[in-house]
Specification:
- The protein is an all-alpha fold.
- It is built from 21 helices and two strands.
- Helix content is 75%, strand content 3%.
- Helix 5 packs antiparallel against helix 9.
- The two termini are 26 Å apart.
């Protein structure tokens, strides 16, 4: 298993680098004929094989037993190593599912964007880096891969090379690096106090060692929460998401929202529940400040999404809001709320990936980017709009979708926490956010299927530039099916996340 674990990380990363630097994959875009066809098929076949093998190996390493692989010794007591645990199994499954769906979708979509060699090179590279990040065994290893995620994914945002893309990429880089330095600041202090930076359920923090230094340690942890929260889009470092998502190609937007933003979530989970320990933060100003920031982000993101007219930017603001659902559940420092947060991490990844891929189909077939342009599309592409409808119901939290299950657990966890005003304020904010989510998603469904009078004239003029390719529609249908399937049969996933929460809080 140790060898399989290393290969699952090294294979996609190495294959992506070779795709980027080797002249073997070059072909002249626009040349037409055999040269362009063979060049494109060669890149697609190579990417498909490498990605499929890497996902199979990652799943094998994750689900066939726990293992530990030491790469090298960073300091005397701090190795750089990988370790498979319950949290890593959950997140690598989410990452792999979304990466596969977006990769298959990108085979057709990127024909119009161009630069396929560069895109798929970084696409493979970032999957390998994410696998290393998820399987990290301690804070040092996690931090190294956290930085590599930023450096590897920035070219995906920059891909189009426009002024808008360049500005978005610079903003993404600046916010992510500033956040990462906040994380590094906290690592310095935790290293001196915890005795170990290894990830242990419940944490490795020893309160006796922190006697007299509680104030500075709480500050260090809070700086880490805000810093790693930048990747997750939490206030005040959230502004990169609405800039990066519209500028990036749609498959990149899907993985940015569904996976890469959750790197910040996993980093926070590791710091709070696997190093510092929930008991150290419970009842402190750090917990209250964290809950406040999370709820403010939930409300602010929903309001901005409601007001936004651009579809991809609307979905980006939605991501800001929805990921803070997860952060709020974690901030309650309670088993049921944490189970809800992990359920929502899975549900949001599937749903938001599907929503972005749907937006990409509207852009690919018609060139539409604004919400107001989508009236009547249900008559012309009913399968696509039905998938969008299921994703919308899931994000709102309407049964029988997986979004309902995760939000139920989050609300129950908040009510049971009995944390002053937050026990009822949390569910109230989540409910208001759900209503706003319905307000910015469902009108597209209604106008798409029931455009009203005057549409027929518009329909005479509107023609699809392209038909929806099967490789773009199939991932959409699979993700929509999962949205409903996990809502009707949620028990296996619920039992799994409850075991993780029980292990962390010492209930097992």
């Amino acid at each position: 298993m140790e060898g399989i674990l290393l290969i699952s990380i090294g294979l996609p990363a190495g294959a992506g680098i070779w795709l980027l630097i080797s002249a073997f994959w070059e072909y002249r875009r626009g040349a037409g004929g055999i040269e362009e066809t063979i060049g494109r098929k060669r890149i697609h076949g190579y990417t498909g094989v490498i990605l499929t093998v890497s996902v199979i190996l990652a799943m094998a390493a994750a689900w066939t037993g726990d293992c530990k692989v030491v790469l090298f010794q960073f300091l005397d007591a701090v190795p750089v190593y990988f370790h498979v645990d319950g949290m890593g199994k959950l997140f690598i499954t989410i990452v792999s599912l979304i990466w596969l769906a977006s990769g298959v979708y990108a085979f057709s979509y990127m024909k119009h964007e161009g630069g396929e060699k560069r895109f798929f090179g970084f696409f493979l590279l970032v999957y390998g880096v994410l696998a290393g990040f998820v399987f990290s065994g301690n804070l040092i290893t996690m931090y190294l891969f956290y930085e590599l995620i930023t450096l590897g994914s920035m070219p995906l945002v920059l891909h189009n090379g426009t002024k808008e893309a360049a500005a978005a990429a610079k903003k993404y880089l600046f916010y992510s690096l500033c956040g990462a330095y906040g994380g590094l600041f906290g690592i310095f202090f935790l290293y001196r106090t915890c005795g170990s930076l290894d990830f242990v359920p419940g944490g490795t923090f020893h309160s006796a060692m922190a006697a007299g230094r509680e104030g500075i340690l709480l500050t260090a942890v809070f700086v880490m929460l805000v810093g790693f929260g930048a990747k997750a889009g939490m206030l005040p470092l959230h502004a990169w998401l609405p800039a990066a998502h519209p500028a990036a190609p749609t498959p990149a937007s899907a993985v940015l929202s569904g996976v890469i933003a959750k790197a910040g979530v996993l980093a926070i989970v590791r710091v709070v529940f696997y190093v510092a320990g929930a008991d150290f933060l419970k009842g402190t100003w750090v917990q209250y400040a964290w809950m406040t920031l999370a709820l403010l982000t939930v409300f602010m993101g929903s309001m901005l999404a409601f007001r936004e007219r651009g579809l991809k930017k609307r979905l980006a603001y939605s991501t800001v809001s929805q990921i803070s659902y997860i952060l709020f559940g974690l901030s309650l420092l309670a088993p049921e709320a944490m189970a809800g947060a992990l359920l929502h991490a899975a549900a949001h990844g599937i749903i938001k990936c599907g929503l972005f891929l749907t937006a990409g189909i509207f852009l690919y077939c018609y060139g539409y980017t604004k919400v107001d342009q989508l009236a009547g599309l249900g008559k012309e592409m009913p399968k696509t709009l039905w998938c969008y409808t299921l994703f919308s119901l899931g994000l709102i939290g309407i049964p029988p979708t997986c979004g309902f299950i995760s939000k139920w657990y989050l609300a129950q966890g908040s009510l049971q926490s009995e944390i002053y005003v937050f026990s009822w304020l949390g569910p109230a904010v989540l409910l208001v956010s759900a209503l706003l989510t319905a307000g910015y998603l469902l009108p597209i469904v209604i106008q798409g299927f029931f455009p009203g009078k005057g549409y027929s004239a518009l329909g005479e003029e509107r023609r699809q530039k392209e038909k929806v390719p099967f490789t773009m529609l199939a991932p959409l249908i699979v993700l929509a099916g999962l949205t409903v399937f996990l809502g009707i049969f949620p028990n296996p996933l619920i039992r799994y996340v409850e075991r993780i929460a029980a292990e962390i809080f010492g209930l097992s």
